[in-house]
Amino acid sequence: MSKVICGLSVSVDGYITGRDPGPGRGLGDGGTLFDWYGSGNVPSRVFSGFRLSAPSARIFDELASRVGASLAGHATYTDSNDFADGAPHPTAPLVVLSHTSFPPANDRQTIVSTGIADAVQTAKDRAGGKDVGLMGGVLVTEALKAGLVNELILHQIPILLGGGRPFFHELPHHIRLSILEVVAAPDVTHLHYQVEGATETAEAAR
Ligand SMILES: NC(=O)c1ccc[n+]([C@@H]2O[C@H](COP(=O)([O-])OP(=O)(O)OC[C@H]3O[C@@H](n4cnc5c(N)ncnc54)[C@H](OP(=O)(O)O)[C@@H]3O)[C@@H](O)[C@H]2O)c1
């Protein structure tokens, strides 16, 4: 069954961007969050142009290979110039969640404006039996509230950014995690968690 996973680059103080992100400057002043994509000498098998350290390449490619569809919050979408160039994933189609409807930037995109459960189900339908990769801190928090996230991966960068957009927002209750894997690579620590008690289907979350 298709799982819902979220792996984001995050500072030690919990930010997925630096200060002042916006269209065309998706990490604000926190550009160092993505340095590990190019700081090694092992080419990614999934993302051309990425050269990672050996431990990071193994983890990055395992996760990227699992993704059959991406699901992004609208802010991630606009700050990445609507992914009009075909990103964020070389093969997976993109679903975007917003409260409003608007035309997609290309035919690999689907805009959903009917809530998080519909967005996750749409992404699962597009994923061809593979997993759904979430992008955006507000979005992943909404999915956690709905019990729809199976795994969280924090690619934790050794920096305190001091401000920016947080990975996690307030939740109405505790959510327990179990540790699947922790790998310390040269410039990033990969923290892979399973979310306990996740709902198996988006229908059940409605
Ligand atoms: N460090 C990393 O690895 C990484 C990865 C991805 C993204 N980012 C960065 O993260 C930033 C964006 O993250 P973010 O947390 O600010 O925002 P986000 O989660 O990407 O998007 C939030 C928006 O998504 C829509 N949305 C979310 N939940 C919804 C719901 N339940 N129903 C309807 N619409 C919903 C809303 O759009 P509307 O306002 O249109 O209704 C909301 O304003 C960007 O700057 C991006 O570059 C970093």
UniProtKB/TrEMBL annotation:
Residues 3-184 form the Bacterial bifunctional deaminase-reductase C-terminal domain. It comes from the Bacteria. It holds the Pfam family RibD_C. This is Riboflavin biosynthesis protein. GO terms for biological process: riboflavin biosynthetic process. GO terms for molecular function: 5-amino-6-(5-phosphoribosylamino)uracil reductase activity. It comes from Microbacterium dextranolyticum. InterPro entries: DHFR-like_dom_sf, RibDG_C. Gene3D superfamilies: Dihydrofolate Reductase, subunit A (3.40.430.10).
